[in-house]
Structures are given as structure tokens and as C-alpha cells.
């Protein structure tokens, strides 16, 4: 979310390339810390929200799934954030729910994506993924009891 140039925010220096490269090298804890630092330095708005999203995904990738999922849920429901970012956070929640077999949650997240940003790339991805979410099987109709005929007379 940062360019390769150094950016000066509130007299502190953030190098976006370093922050974004940490997850690639498998240093998820360092990446989460760097994103948290960036979140504290950036003003509220899209850039700060992208840093929060990056931190959430670094936590998930580093095995701190519950923390990352909580952060994604906060972003997903934060009405002060822009709709496409909220849709992206919701899409990530959908992916987590689908991977863990929580189909009801996955379906709920898909619907939220379509409500938040129906023309976003996240809605397009969700539309493509919609068919892969297993829907609960309809209850089997109870079969009528078999007709009992009397035995033929001998």
C-alpha cells in the first residue's frame, strides 16, 4: 500500500516496501508489528485501514488466526471505512470460513460483500466462489409407508 519511496508521517519514517516484503519472507510477526506501527503513524482513512488489513492478514498467516479474524471483523463492520476495503476484509473472512468448513458463515459473508460493494473486484471474486460454497442439504422427504397388501389366499 506504500510506494517504494520513504514516506514521512508525523516525523516518523515508514518504508512500505520493507513492511510489504516481510510476509513474503515468512516473517509474519515482524510484518504484523510493522503494520501496527504504520497504523499508528497514518491518519485515519484508507491508508490506515490498509495497514490494519495488512496486520490482520499477517497475523492469520503467522498462525494467530483468532486475532486476525477479529481485526477483519472490525474492519468489515466499520461503517467509517470505504466500502471496497470493507468488502475485501469480508472476502478474507469468507475465505477463512470456507476453508474451515463453516458454510453458513461463508454464505453470510458472501451476502455482505454483495451488499457492501456490488461492483467491486471482491464481489466479482465472491460471485465466482459462490458456487463452491456447499449449501446445506434439504431434509429428505419422509417416505410414505409401504402399502401392505393381504397375503393371497391359498
Topology of helices and strands:
Elements: E1 7-9, E2 12-14, H1 16-24, H2 28-41, H3 46-61, H4 65-77, H5 83-99, H6 103-116, H7 121-130
Antiparallel strand pairs: 1-2
Q: Helical amount among residues, as a percent range?
A: 55-70%
Straight-line distance between termini: 89 Å
- Kindly report the average pLDDT value: 76
Largest sheet: 2 strands, antiparallel
Strand coverage percent: under 5%
Low-confidence stretches: 1-19
Question: What strand line-up does the widest sheet have?
Answer: 1-2
Shape: elongated
Report on the architecture of this protein.
Helix 5 (83-99) packs antiparallel against helix 6. It is built from seven helices and two strands. It is mainly α and 154 residues long. The chain has helices spanning 16-24, 28-41, 46-61, 65-77, 83-99, 103-116, 121-130; strands at 7-9, 12-14. The radius of gyration is 23 Å and the shape is elongated. Helix content is 60%, strand content 4%. The model is unreliable at 1-19 (pLDDT under 50). The protein has a two-stranded antiparallel sheet with strand order 1-2.
Keywords:
154 residues; mainly alpha; two-stranded antiparallel ribbon; elongated; disordered N terminus
Task: Give a short synopsis of this structure.
The chain has 7 helices and 2 strands, in the order ββααααααα.
Amino acid at each position: 500500500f506504500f510506494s517504494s519511496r520513504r514516506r514521512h508521517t508525523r516525523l516518523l519514517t515508514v518504508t512500505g516496501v520493507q513492511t510489504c516484503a516481510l510476509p513474503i519472507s515468512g516473517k509474519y510477526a515482524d510484518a504484523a508489528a510493522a503494520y501496527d506501527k504504520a497504523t499508528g503513524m497514518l491518519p485515519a482513512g484508507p491508508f490506515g485501514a490498509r495497514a490494519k488489513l495488512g496486520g490482520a492478514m499477517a497475523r492469520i498467516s503467522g498462525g494467530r488466526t483468532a486475532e486476525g479474524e477479529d481485526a477483519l471483523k472490525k474492519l468489515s463492520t466499520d461503517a467509517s471505512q470505504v466500502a471496497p476495503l470493507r468488502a475485501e476484509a469480508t472476502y478474507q473472512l469468507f475465505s477463512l470460513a470456507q476453508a474451515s468448513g463453516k458454510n453458513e458463515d461463508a454464505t453470510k459473508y458472501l451476502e455482505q460483500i454483495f451488499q457492501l460493494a456490488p461492483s467491486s473486484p471482491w464481489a466479482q471474486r465472491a460471485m465466482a466462489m459462490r458456487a463452491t460454497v456447499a449449501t446445506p442439504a434439504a431434509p429428505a422427504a419422509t417416505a410414505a409407508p409401504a402399502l401392505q397388501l393381504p397375503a393371497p389366499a391359498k
